[in-house]
Write a structure and sequence with these properties.
The structure holds 2 protein chains of 2 kinds. By secondary structure, chain A is mainly alpha-helical. Chain A has 10 helices and no strands. The mean pLDDT of chain A is 89. Classes of the chains: A mainly alpha, B mainly alpha.
Chain lengths: 264, 264
């Protein structure tokens, strides 16, 4: 009987682990949005509009940008660096496989599965914050956003790929990845809408790739841009994709020259 | 007294050992420091953006706001310096059974798992918030007397005790549920709420940060003490919370050890 109780206990703990992990993800995703909602509610109590944004727009901004982050982040850096450091790259370079394409496909697959978990979490969040949220189901906007997400996904992947490949030249790439994250946080509008910054800075940031990750899609979402401005934005993203691709190729060529291929 | 001296000597050895190891990777060290510095600057920009919009956080003006932010980062960085590496290693101790070896050592196990590693990068990262702190003291023309300096240091100590205790307690979940990714982020996510003054948290969240995870006054009390401002209610809450949280952390550690399954 004692043994049987232990088996039941193991079963309960196993089930709890999965549920706890889900609750934990919900919490990690929810907490920053709740924090920002409290902050901006406090600020909007003093002023009805800040930087052209209402409170509802601001809360929507934080929720949707966090969701976009879950869609476009590939988190490929660590895996690529590990492949290089541990010599696992051998199995790719000795076969007729393009490593970059392989990794991109692999990350797309992983992202797709992750989204199955993330989307219900965000639906719960939307339910909690529903009185603040602004919904936009305009079909043209959705098409533009889909194109933007796809281009951002590629850009984000190239960034991750470049950081990961630095493992060819450095022992530890973790800090470089952290630095990249901070640059993105500052210039992409992840921490706050870029419309709150001075206009000159906004103009400079508009030529860089980062603003197209979060600030640009939110401007599209709120229909604050003209069609020409949207095309321009998507065009700039395409140019950056070409630039990043060329840089990534260059690092790959230099890196593989350096690569010792432990275990080949 | 002899015991305390022995533990201090042991801790000095831990620190020396970690410094030697961290200095081996200088590029990583510089990049990590840059990343922390950029994050700090990012929050200064965020505060500037808020105050540029002609709104204020709570009753604080811009300079008081920055003083508050500098104290938040001082506690955060000191906390990271002592604990981040230890608490991120926690899953290895429990899930992989590495705690077995620690339990056989002639040293208090809670002391060992909490302080074995030291972050040299965080030690250097103290300087930017410290510079901001001194700058704000000068701008706000705050007179430094032995009383406000000593009280500031005492309250920083009590705040760090709460910070440590709750971070430690949240990690103990691993004794019961040992498959949670990045559990050490659990407390850090909550702690980040404190980068904004307590005034913005009302209702349920205020109750939560006073009664359940009592971190609401951890930044405000030391910040007020250095400005010769004393809120007796908040001070009492902070001191009681620090004593109880440390006691609870000790009790839960002992209970957790009884549930430890020694996987190794």
């Amino acid at each position: 009987m004692n043994k049987f109780t232990t088996y039941i206990k193991i079963g309960v703990l196993d089930a709890l682990e999965m549920r706890f992990q889900l609750l934990y993800w919900l919490y990690v995703n929810m907490a920053p949005i709740i924090m920002m909602t409290y902050l901006w509610s406090h600020l909007y109590a003093q002023k009805g509009e800040i930087g052209g944004y209402s409170l509802n727009m601001m809360v929507t901004y934080y929720l949707v940008t966090r969701l976009i982050n879950r869609i476009i982040s590939t988190y490929a850096e660590e895996r690529i660096a590990k492949d290089i450091k541990e010599g696992r790259l051998n199995q790719y370079i000795t076969r007729p496989i393009d490593y970059m394409t392989y990794k991109f496909g692999e990350r797309l697959g992983i992202r797709a599965v992750n989204l199955i978990i993330v989307i219900p979490i965000y639906m719960i969040l939307m339910l909690i914050l529903r009185e603040y949220l602004i919904f936009n189901f305009d079909s043209i906007t959705i098409i533009f956003l889909s194109i933007n997400f796809f281009l951002s996904l590629i850009l984000f992947f190239f960034l991750a790929f470049m950081i990961g490949m630095m493992a060819f030249f450095m022992v530890e790439t973790h800090a470089l990845n952290g630095l990249k994250d901070q640059v993105i946080n500052l210039m992409s509008g992840y921490l706050f809408p870029l419309t709150l910054l001075p206009e000159k800075l906004q103009e400079i940031f508009s030529y860089l790739p980062f603003t197209y990750f979060y600030n640009f899609p939110m401007e599209v979402y709120f229909q604050r841009l003209t069609t020409i401005q949207i095309y321009q934005g998507l065009g700039i993203q395409c140019v950056w994709i070409i630039v990043f691709y060329l840089i990534a190729q260059l690092i790959w060529q230099q890196g593989t020259k350096n690569y010792e291929g432990i275990g080949i | 007294m002899k015991k305390i001296t022995r533990y201090i000597k042991l801790y000095i050895h831990f620190v020396q050992n970690c410094i030697t190891r961290e200095l081996l990777f200088r590029t990583h060290f510089i990049l990590s420091f840059s990343s922390r510095l950029l994050m700090f600057l990012l929050y200064i920009v965020f505060y500037q953006v808020i105050y540029r919009s002609a709104v204020a956080i709570g009753t604080l003006n811009y300079d008081q706001g920055l003083l508050y932010l500098s104290v938040f980062f001082l506690i955060d960085t000191i906390g990271f310096m002592f604990f981040i590496k230890n608490f991120s290693t926690f899953p290895e101790y429990i899930s992989e059974g590495k705690l077995d070896i620690i339990l056989t050592k002639p040293v208090d196990s809670q002391f060992f798992v909490s302080l074995r590693y030291f972050s040299l990068i965080s030690l250097f990262s103290i300087f930017p918030p410290l510079v901001l702190f001194i700058r704000q003291l000068i701008i706000l023309d705050i007179a430094l007397t032995p009383i406000n300096i000593v009280l500031f240091l005492i309250f920083m100590g009590t705040s760090l005790t709460i910070y440590y205790s709750f971070w430690f307690i949240t990690n103990l979940i691993l004794f019961w549920i040992n498959r949670i990714d990045a559990l050490h982020e659990f407390f850090v996510t909550l702690w980040r709420f404190m980068q904004f003054p307590p005034d913005i948290f009302q209702g349920v969240l205020r109750f939560f940060f006073v009664g359940i995870v009592p971190i609401l006054f951890t930044v405000s009390v030391p910040t007020q003490a250095i400005q010769h401002l004393f809120d007796l209610k908040a001070i009492s809450a902070l001191i009681i919370a620090s004593i109880f949280s440390l006691l609870i952390s000790r009790i839960l550690w002992k209970i957790g050890l009884r549930h430890y399954q020694s996987t190794g």
